[in-house]
């Protein structure tokens, strides 16, 4: 775990202590240990069925753990129903009450608490302004666009000033532009309210963009926890190396031939450089000779797939800086040398 | 172009017809809607219209002949206390049957929609639907036997020592009687039994459409289950309750077999219409009686809409 990124004084907002949740034979969450700090933007990243949403639902109280315990700010909440937990959720489908207006939706939590109507209306007004939906109180959720519903769901959760806000793939249904805009806005709002955000997503780019820390989930277990840079630059397992960004995995005989080491290694395609065959390899680098098999033009950069003479292949990403990138396709079949820093090679566990 | 498979002029009749319909969607719509609209228009609305007209004819008191002139005589007769008593009695029975059906149906429909899984679910749907497959008359006559003094219900009550409860119920004024099969109470049981599926199914359908996440959201926002039920589940299921109550209410208002077979032979609207148009030959009054349930249902729907029953649709 990444102890060194932990602010030393930070309070623990959510603690998982050997938490498991089984559905019949399926171990949706399997012996998870996890600390999330106060004020953090924490992402749970993983493919569908990896247990990230179940973890979120365990924090909210919609699911109860099969074993282990969960603490919220030091208080054991294992077994507590959702309505007794000081957390709020932004649902994937927004879950806005269709028979209520936007104002009634946002004010629901305050109404439950028995706050007077006039006071409620003031707070709803403020909250709607914060999510840039000022004056929309009287609309029905069906009259809103996807992005607007998203904001209502956010306002409805935040108005209760929860200690932790849970977001279950809230941007999944939005189109790319709106998604990117909402990513920024969520970040801004989090800074403003200072609440711990726990964000579930299967989109690695989204997790990298928004998070202070990320937990990568696979098959009910956490593969790695760390800052976006740690997760990307120093993946610990083959799963993380492959799920977050793209990696060349070099293993077994190939690793021995190319790098003279045993083990499985991950190398990011953009860390590898293409140089002429005869150029000498600088110190502390690895190199390999091969022929370019595939050239895929991607605009900002170009992906090359190189068949190595020693067997196997490496994927290389070069930025399209030079003018002659118009003719990248001509490189197909060319004999080249690949070099990369030894330190860019990550030894993977398992 | 290879994309156009055939020369349109040589195309088969079916292809040409399909193309024509594609180009003229309004023609297609007309062809599809004309038969049902004609059916509804002529047989349904037409007969209803004739009914309304008939209710404004009157019967000559001496000759008993129907006089086909506009008159409010028949409605004057309808509003006499004796006839209005029939209307009140029927409406009261319909209202109580509807209320009881809703109270019994809701928990079952809720369980079926939210909790029942797999076999249990299929079994419950079957249990609700199977009674509808057998003859309505057979079921009513079975109930007459079940409720009779010599019937199985009495035997069970005697065996478990609850005949006292039955006697107490039958001694009650108005709803009691000589036996369950000759009392309003028995009639009420049979009405609820017969119409219950019509209440369960719409409520169930409405509850099925309430996403689980709404209930979770309410709980997440601090609401205890009872609060969630009052503020989220029930309002969203209310259109289903209204739909179900339209069935139970209007079916009870119009039924003539149950009040004839079960009960103490006091008149309800159904039997009244039956005897007026038959033995007494007073078709105008029968027609006027038939208008009553329609008016009551119209008012009922207006009130339901006022209450917001259809807002969540």
Overview of this structure, please?
The complex is a heterodimer of chains A (about 350) and B (about 325). By secondary structure, chain A is an alpha+beta fold. Chain A has helices at about 50-60, 100-105, 110, 115-130, 145-160, 175-195, 205-210, 230-235, 240-245, 250-260, and strands at about 10-25, 25-35, 40-45, 65-70, 75, 85-90, 165-170, 195-200, 215-220, 220-225, 250, 265, 275, 285-295, 300-310, 315-320, 335-340, 345. In chain A, the strands form four sheets. A six-stranded mixed sheet of chain A has the order 6-7-8-3-9-10, sandwiched between helices. Chain A has a five-stranded antiparallel sheet with strand order 13-17-14-15-16, with no helix packed on it. The longest helix of chain A has 18 residues, at about 175-195. Chain B is mainly alpha-helical. Chain B folds into two domains: about 25-50, no CATH class; about 85-310, Orthogonal Bundle (MetI-like fold). Chain B contains 14 helices and two strands, in the order ααββαααααααααααα. Chain B has helices at about 15-25, 25-55, 75-80, 80-115, 120-135, 135-145, 150-160, 165-170, 185-210, 210-220, 225-255, 255-260, 270-275, 285-305; strands at about 60, 65. Chain B has a two-stranded antiparallel ribbon. In chain B, α4 packs across α9 (about 185-210). The longest helix of chain B is centred in the first third of the chain and has 34 residues, at about 80-115.
């Amino acid at each position: 775990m990444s102890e060194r990124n932990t602010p030393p004084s930070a309070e623990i907002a959510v603690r998982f202590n050997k938490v498991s949740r089984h559905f019949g034979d399926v171990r949706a969450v399997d012996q998870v240990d996890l600390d999330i700090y106060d004020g953090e933007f924490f992402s749970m990243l993983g493919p569908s069925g990896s247990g990230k949403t179940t973890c979120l639902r365990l924090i909210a109280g919609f699911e109860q753990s099969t074993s282990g315990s969960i603490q919220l700010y030091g208080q054991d909440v294992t077994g507590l129903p959702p309505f007794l937990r000081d957390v709020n959720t932004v649902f994937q489908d927004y879950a806005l009450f269709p028979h209520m207006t936007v104002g009634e939706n946002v004010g629901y939590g305050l109404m439950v608490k028995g706050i007077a109507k006039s006071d409620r209306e003031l707070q709803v007004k403020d909250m709607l302004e914060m999510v840039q939906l000022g004056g929309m109180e009287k609309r029905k959720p069906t009259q809103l666009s996807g992005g607007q519903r998203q904001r209502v769901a956010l306002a409805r959760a935040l108005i209760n000033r929860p200690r932790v806000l849970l977001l279950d793939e809230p941007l999944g249904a939005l189109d790319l532009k709106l998604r990117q805009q909402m990513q920024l806005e969520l970040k801004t709002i989090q800074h403003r309210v200072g609440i711990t955000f726990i964000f579930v997503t299967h989109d690695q780019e989204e997790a990298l963009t928004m998070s202070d820390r990320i937990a990568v989930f696979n098959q009910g277990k956490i593969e790695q926890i760390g800052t976006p840079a740690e997760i990307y630059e120093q993946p610990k397992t083959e799963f993380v190396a492959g799920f977050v960004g793209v990696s060349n995995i070099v293993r077994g005989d190939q690793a021995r031939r190319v790098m003279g080491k045993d083990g499985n290694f991950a190398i990011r395609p953009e860390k590898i450089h293409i140089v002429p065959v005869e150029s000498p390899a600088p110190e502390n680098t690895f190199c390999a000779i091969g022929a370019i098999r595939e050239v895929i033009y991607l605009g900002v950069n170009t992906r090359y797939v190189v068949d190595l003479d020693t067997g196997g292949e490496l994927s290389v990403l070069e930025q399209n800086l030079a003018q002659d990138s118009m003719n990248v396709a001509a490189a197909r079949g060319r004999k080249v040398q690949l070099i990369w820093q030894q330190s860019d090679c990550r030894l993977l566990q398992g | 172009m290879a994309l156009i498979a055939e020369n349109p002029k040589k195309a088969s009749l079916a292809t040409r017809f399909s193309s024509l319909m594609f180009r003229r969607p309004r023609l297609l719509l007309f062809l599809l809607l004309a038969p049902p609209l004609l059916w509804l228009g002529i047989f349904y609305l037409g007969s209803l219209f004739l009914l309304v007209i008939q209710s404004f004819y009157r019967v000559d008191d001496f000759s008993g002949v129907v006089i086909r002139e506009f008159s409010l005589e028949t409605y004057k007769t309808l509003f006499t206390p004796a006839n209005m008593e029939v209307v009140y009695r029927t409406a009261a029975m319909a209202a109580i049957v509807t209320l009881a059906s809703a109270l019994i149906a809701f928990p079952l429909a809720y369980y079926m929609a939210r909790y029942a899984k797999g076999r249990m679910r299929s079994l419950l749907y079957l249990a609700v639907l199977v009674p509808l497959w057998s003859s309505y008359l057979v079921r009513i006559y079975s109930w007459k036997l079940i409720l009779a003094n010599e019937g199985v219900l009495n035997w069970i009550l005697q065996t478990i020592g609850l005949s006292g409860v039955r006697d107490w119920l039958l001694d009650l004024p108005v709803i009691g009687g000589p036996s369950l099969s000759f009392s309003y109470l028995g009639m009420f049981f049979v009405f609820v039994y017969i119409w219950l599926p019509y209440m369960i199914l719409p409520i169930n359908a409405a509850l099925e459409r309430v996403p689980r996440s709404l209930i979770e959201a309410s709980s997440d926002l601090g609401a205890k289950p009872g609060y969630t039920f009052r503020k989220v589940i029930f309002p969203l299921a209310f259109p289903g309750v209204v739909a179900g109550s339209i069935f139970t209410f209007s079916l009870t208002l119009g039924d003539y077999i149950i009040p004839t077979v079960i009960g103490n032979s006091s008149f309800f609207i159904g039997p009244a219409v039956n005897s007026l148009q038959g033995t007494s030959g007073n078709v105008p009054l029968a027609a006027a009686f038939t208008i009553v349930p329609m008016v009551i249902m119209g008012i009922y729907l207006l009130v339901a809409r006022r209450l917001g029953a259809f807002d969540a649709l």
